[in-house]
Write a structure and sequence with these properties.
Blueprint (H helix, E strand, L loop, with lengths): L2 H46 L5 H8 L6 H31 L6 H30 L1 H14 L1
Helix pairs in contact: 3-4
Length: 150
């Protein structure tokens, strides 16, 4: 059997099916390992000192929750990155088409990817702006709470 026929079929299947499944599996496996590690730490602490305050220990070893401000700033970061990448792909596609490089499909593919990234970036930037307005009071309350703890 000729491998030249199989490659155009297997690459989209691998990218569209196998890659997302592997990403989900690895992220779930990472979370399970972190949970198992925390459980082992708690069990070892109980064995060494059964009178210790478990609630305080759990607070110390549990992962820190992101503040609302940090979540909004990450949306701003990813919005800016995807918008710039989208504009770059669109510019690259226009460059290819103006200089007659890459045939007809390459510039359109680049422009298509650019439009998708641009749309995602704009959506994230809008989400950041709306979230900032809607959550202003909650963010201020979180900051005041953090200042009181310090």
């Amino acid at each position: 059997m000729d491998l030249g026929i199989l490659v155009p079929i297997l690459v989209p299947i691998a990218c569209g099916c196998v890659l997302p499944i592997m990403i989900v599996w690895l992220s779930i496996r990472k979370e399970m390992n972190e949970t198992n590690t925390r459980t082992q730490i708690v069990l070892a602490a109980i064995e060494k000192n059964p009178d210790m305050d478990l609630e305080e220990l759990m607070k110390k070893i549990s992962p820190k929750k992101k503040l609302l401000k940090e979540k909004l700033l990450s949306k701003l970061l990813w919005g800016c990155l995807t918008t710039i990448l989208g504009l770059g792909f669109i510019g690259f596609g226009i460059y290819l088409s103006l200089n007659n490089l890459g045939g007809h499909d390459d510039p359109m593919t680049s422009i298509g990817f650019g439009l998708i990234l641009l749309g995602i970036g704009i959506a994230l930037l809008i989400n950041y702006g709306v979230g900032k307005k809607m959550l202003a009071k909650e963010i201020e309350a979180e900051q005041n709470k953090m200042l009181e703890k310090a």
